Amino acid sequence: MTEGWGDGLPLIPPTEGRVRMHLSKSGRFPDEVIAVLLPLRTECTVEKIAINAVMAGAPAESMPLLIAAVEAMAESKFELQSLNATTGSVVPAIIVNGPIRHTLKIPFATGCLGGVAGPAPAIGRALRLLIRNVAGQVIDITSQSTYGTPGRVAGIVFGEWEEKSPWAPLGERLGVKGDAVTAYGAMGTANICDMIGNTADHFLQMIGKSLAYPGANGFLPSSQWSETLVAINPVWAEVIGKAYPNIEDVQQKIFDYAAIPIDFLDPAYREPIDRCGRLQADGRVHLIQKPEEVFVMVAGGMGGLHCAMLHSWGTCLTTTKPVRMPA
Q1: Which branch of life, at top level (predicted)?
Q2: For 14-70, how does the pLDDT look when each residue is reduced to its tens digit (9 = 90+)?
């Protein structure tokens, strides 16, 4: 802690034996450079990942997942340097697909975004320590986040309930079959509640209109992209999937509903939004610039009634990487 390696919570000492155990589960050489992490442009080796995983309490078996997550966050299109320095409250959310969800007990059902006793918070914390200790994101030094977010302590790590999804897994739709991690720049999580609806179009309308609040980063004229992530509970997903078996139709519906009249925004927004081509002929502005930027997945409890939305920061692009298990 005196070295500034911590986040304020207790750390497990990274003894040689503990680090060696984590390295043995990685299937990689300790000095292998996985990525160069920004803003400090520091080489992130397998050994550094192991050290931070030990300190966070992440299980040794999570090393392949942690390595894949680092690879995803280090992709240039993910804009890790900007993410680490912004005034926004963005945090890399890690979505897990494939059998490794079961192996590592990654939550994807009831309480998947927080409260499940399992390794996901420790895995998320390991990534947060890496971003702090290796990438160099430190409040008031390299990070100017106005508020931050609880996700900057334990991360956001959860899985997709693939077995309940009427559509292909998110990772597969983003190019990776089987074990995969997807890094998404999330501005925290927010709840959508609907205790009245019982049709696909009702649910999709509620989701789309809930996403489109005027202060969302996606409405900023300066936003290069406006991806958004929606985790739909299995009860709603079954209803929606029967009406719309093609995920592209679901994305299109949410895209259509996630729009507001330009008059909802301050007049100062009209000219720059019009200039960048986002003001539609009907006077509306879409939160999302393309339907394919709506990432839909199935997760959450069977109680239904709720949906989770994770708005994008608007600058980083989602990346997906395979989790390579050791032979």
Answers
A1: Bacteria
A2: 999 999 999 999 999 999 999 999 999 999 999 999 999 999 999 999 999 999 999
Residue 43, Cβ density class (10 Å: 0-12 exposed, 13-18 middle, ≥19 buried): middle
Contact of 230 with 254, CB cutoff 8 Å: yes
Peptide bond between residue 245 and the one before it cis (omega within 30 degrees of 0):
no
Judged by DSSP in three states, 286 sits in strand
Q: Which two tokens stand for residue 174?
A: 């983003």
> What does the block give as tokens for 77?
């299109």
Residue 142: per-residue pLDDT: 92
- End-to-end Cα distance, the chain: 36
Beta strand pairing status for 156-159 and 91-97?
A: parallel
Crossing angle between the packed helical segments 120-130 and 63-74, to the nearest 10 degrees: 50
Q: Is the pLDDT of residue 283 over 90?
A: yes
> DSSP letters along 82-93, please?
HHHH-SS--EEE
E strands, 271-324, in order: 284-286, 294-298, 306-311, 319-322
pLDDT at 223 over 90: no
> Can you give the length of the chain in residues?
327
Interatomic CA distance for residues 156 and 153, integer angstroms: 9
Q: Residue 133 has which token pair?
A: 């200790």
Torsion angle of C-alpha atoms 313, 109, 201, 258, degrees rounded to 10: -10
The overall pTM is greater than 0.90: yes
pLDDT in tens, 70-95: 999 999 999 999 999 999 999 999 99
